[in-house]
Amino acid sequence: MSVLLETKDLTVTFGGLNANDHVDLKVDSGSFVGLIGPNGAGKTTFIDAITGFVPTSAGSATFGGQDLSELKPHQRAQLGLVRTFQSLELFEDLSVRDNLLVAAYPTRWYTLLQDIFYVKQKKNDVEEKVDWALEVAGIAHQADILPTDLPHGQRKLVGVARALAAQPNLVLLDEPAAGLDTAESNSLGTHLRDLLKHDITVFLIDHDMGLVLSVCDYIYVMDFGKIIAEGTPSEIRTNPEVISAYLGEEAGEIQARSAEELRDMTIEGNE
Fold first, then answer.
1. Are 247 and 209 in contact (CB under 8 A)?
2. Last residue of a domain, one of 139, 165, 191
3. CA 88, CA 197: separation in Å to the nearest integer?
4. Does 61 share its domain with 172?
5. Three-class SS state of 56
6. C-alpha angle with apex 193: 63 to 29, nearest 5 degrees?
7. What does the pLDDT profile of the chain (271 residues) look like in tens digits?
8. Contact between 58 and 11 (Cβ < 8 Å)
9. Is residue 266 part of a domain?
10. Based on the domain organization, do 105 and 75 belong to the same domain?
């Protein structure tokens, strides 16, 4: 397989601190790659840097062999590099289907003469893309519903489907399973794996370890902005550095919960 996305020494600095610290990462065409790490590890910043939403301080990123450094976000999207966001940017007054139609229409300008002759063809092409994206995301039955009438988990799926409607070469998914229950997450994983059948490469960030380990072919682990491990799901499961990073996070959460419980007990004892 050929390399579709590659970063070398990619660094993003905020206020003198490296949110991404010399990150080397490759995504082969036709693969399903994951990026995991504790909260605040720099995972979303990495996607922001690749898609042009934050500037890089050092290093390089290429997509299909083309240097991305001078390209704006919409230009990178035109190359086939598309992403989702943790914060859903949906048009609340448009139906699910119309949200996808907005994303699927070409971003280049047409002359009036071209519009007259090709508007029907364009419309048919776009509607086919939207129908496909709705089906792949498993929300075809909710096409005419407003996003405001959907539960959070289903709204996340609309965000995924809207990215797919552009029929990208590579889709970067930022926490698509957030807010989903176990059954919904498993269903999402099945749909996402199916993207490979449609020649769409997938790069997934998610805190749902079960999802990442079950769907990804290869996984990178980030902590404090650095890649601390990489390998197949079976290799990542047993990697000591990965276990240490996640145990540290869990220990912090346990400590915080214990502090809250102690505080509640103290309050109750004083009543």
1. no
2. 165
3. 26
4. yes
5. coil
6. 25
7. 799 999 999 999 998 899 999 999 999 999 999 999 888 899 999 999 999 999 999 999 999 999 999 999 989 998 999 999 887 778 899 999 998 988 776 655 444 455 555 555 556 778 888 998 998 888 899 999 999 999 877 888 898 898 888 888 999 999 888 878 888 788 888 888 888 988 899 999 988 888 899 999 999 999 999 999 999 999 998 888 888 877 665 444 434 444 444 444 444 444 5
8. yes
9. no
10. no
Q: In 144-158, which positions are buried (b, 16+ CB within 10 angstroms) versus exposed (e)?
A: eebbeebeebbbbbb
Q: State the residue range of the domain holding 13.
A: 1-80+168-236
DSSP three-state, residue 224: coil
Question: 71 and 95 in one domain?
Answer: no
Identity at 215, one-letter amino acid code: V
* Residue 135 counted as domain residue: yes
Residue 174 tokens, joined: 């930022």
Secondary structure element (H or E) that encloses residue 218, with its range:
strand 218-223
